[in-house]
Structure formats: C-alpha cells, structure tokens
Amino acid sequence: MGQYKVKTLAAAVLVAMSCGANSYAAQMTNQQIQTLVDRVVAQKTQGLQQEVGQLKMEVTNLRQQLSVAKKAPVTVSSQSKSKRTSTESLPERRYRPGSGYNANQPNHPNYKEIKIPSPYLVVDNAGLTRLYLGGTPVFTSPYIGKHSSYDGSDLIVNQSTVNLDTRILKQGQALDDELAEKGFPIPQHPVVELSGEVEGVATGTKTHPGTTNGDINLSDAELDVYAQANPWMFGYISFAWADSFDTPYRVSNANAIIDKAFLTIGNLSKSPFYGSLGQLYVPFGQYTSYMISNPFTETLARTKARAAVFGFYPRGETGPFGAAYVFKSDTFESDKSAAGGANLGYNFGFHNIFGTIAVGGITNIADSLGMQENGAPDSIPFAGFGMNTDAENIFHAVPAVDVNGVASYKHLNLIGEYIGTTTSFDPRAMTFDSEGAHPTAGQVEGAYTFTLCGRPGNFALGYNWTKDALAL
Q1: Most buried in the list 17, 278, 298, 411, measured by CB within 10 Å?
Q2: Contact criterion met (CB below 8 Å) for 405 and 356
C-alpha cells in the first residue's frame, strides 16, 4: 500500500502543476493535499479489500470442488468398434448444500453451488457413499443390460436347489466376465436379486353315483432373496409358505417358514475354492428334470440339513468339480449323530456335445426329506422317520450312492440318474416284504428344445422307477 500511496501523491502534484498557479490545487497547502491523498487511498483500499474478499470466496469454492473430485473419482469406460477401450469422465451435475428449501435457491445468501460427478452409470462407488445419507446405493438387475429369456429358466426359484451355492458363484463369475468384456470395473457395491413364485390350484372331482366336490387353494408361495455383500461373500434366504392343517379354518393355517438360508464365501473369478454354511440342500444327487413333477430320485434322496460345505469348481466351462459336507443327523443309532458325504464330477465338452457326469455318496440317506416326511395319510402308521423320536432311532446308518449325468447335442438333451442304498435298513426301522428295505430309484429323460413365436420351449419324455420304496 505504501507504493500505491506515493504514486497517488505524485499524481496529485502533477494535477496541481498542470492547472496553473491560479488554480484551486495550486493554492492548496501541504496538509490539504495530504488529506485529499489519504481520502483517495482509503477509497481505493476499500475497493481492493472487497476484491480480495471475492477472490478468497472463489478460492474456497475451488478447493471444495477439488476436494470432492479427489474423494469421488468416477470414470466410465467406453468401447469403440475397434475394441480399444478409452476412459472419460462422467457428466457432472450441480449439488446445492444447505438447510431447507430456500437455501437451495440461487438468490438465497447461504446458496452454494458445487460440481460433483454424476452417479449415472456408476459402477465403482468408491467415495460416493458420503453423498447417500441412507447408505451405499444398491443396484438391481438387469445390471449388464441383458434381457430375460421370457421363461422361468432365469428365476432362482426354478433353478436346481442342489448345488445352489455353486450356481450363484458361476452367475457371479459370468457377471464379472461380461463387465470385463464391456470395459467396466468389477462392482464393489452390494447387489440384491429377488425371485419367487405364487401358485394357485382349483380342482373338481366327481364320484359315482354323481357326487361333485371342488376346491380352491393356494398350493405354493415362495420369496427368494440373494444379497452379495462384496465380491467374496453373499447370503441367500428363501421364505416359503406352508399349510400346517392345524385348524379347520384353512386361512389360519398359512405360515411362513425359512426354507433355505446360508452364507457362502468364494469368488470363482479369483479362486476355484469356496465354502458355505447354513441350512441348505447338501450336494448329493442332481435331480435335473424337464418335467413339472419332481423325479422319484429327488423324492427319495434329496437332503436338506444345517451343514458346512467345502468345495471347488472349475474356472472355465469344462473341468473337474467336487464338494465335501458334514452335518448333524436327525436320525440316530447308538448315540451317533454325525453325518456327511462327498460329491465328485466333471464338466465335459467336445464336438458340440456338452454335459456333466458325477458320482456322490452320503453316510446316511435316512436324513432325506422323503424319508423324514413321506406325506402318508393318517391311515398309514408310518409317516416318516421324523414323525416322532422313536421312529428316528434307525439302529444303524444306511449309506447311499448316486450316479448322474446330463448330455446335450444341439437341440437334444439326455438326463440319467440312479440312487441306491449300499445296505438294507434294520427291519425294525423300515421293511419291505418282511425284510429290511433296500430302497433305490432311477430316472431317464430325453428332451428336444425349440423356439416357438420367439419363445423357448421343449418337448420331453421321461421314465422313473423305484424299488423297495413302498413305505416312502
């Protein structure tokens, strides 16, 4: 400011000299000149202070913009026709912080305007969580823009319940591969997928000599929730409707139960190994079918337990896979209740023929759903080993083996499976023809897939059989 004051004083002297001796400036005393100079300097200083204040506000806003940009770097990749990937910044939107509606108006004294990257098409939300007071944003399907096949094959509820954890892991691997092909980073945010079904049934019967009966009922209802917490962990819960038949008033018998609930740790894009813990169907058997009704193999041997499963699965479409599992058995013999098993298989493909073949074993098939509850009416004395504590005492464990395979060639598909016990039940537990039962079941199916009016369909024939399974 000292230099500025000297220059102003020099300017005042020059003005006085140029106006001549008779001018007012020439007749001013030194004190009057100093007073005039001080007044001009004060006015100039006030103007400069206002300019400095405005510059400080601009610097503060610029620092805020740079701070947000550093904390939330968001980029999206676009792929050109030449398959070369380029990275560019996403469009920006304006974020107006403030309290209340008026503070968000441009003419409000507390109004501020900050540019931040738009969350549109965000796949890597690092640093954006602070912008969502409700928590990390959750994205729903179709995440990669793939449309439904317009049939039930892409619904969780219609997928095989056995090895469901590996199927979900393979789905996650396919998603990672698709994103990598499109040039997007792997998502780090949670992913939620919902699925379910509701089935109603109306029946009518007419008996001789002409009595007619009818019924309308809810036959099935289910809600499946898949939640991926991070790329290495997901949880799965399936809620199902159950009709308990506790009272004559049927609406009161409607109950919701947890059918399946388990936690899985694994990432097939990074490692072939995984582990699951919770209530799930253990990996014994496959039970694949094109039919609406369940195959006899599933009715006989599908086992749901609160188990721990450890397995591996190939990174590619072909290769070996396997799993081992352990759980506490509901049946018991000589106070021994530990049970478990293992499954080993191979995915193959050559000359347009693709398929899977597997073999497995379980230490006690009496824990299967079909043997715990066989659905027999009250007139039948045996309703399954789960009918009471006495029935759960089977005196000795009954191991079983399973062999299954699936093969496809263009539109043709073949399915085969065989399950059988390796020893007979104790006659005090289950008999057939006055001897200990030796249950087995088999299934063979052939199917032809086609497209009709742009929608997939199939025509299938199957044959199922059982042996020594009358009590079931």
Answers
A1: 298
A2: yes
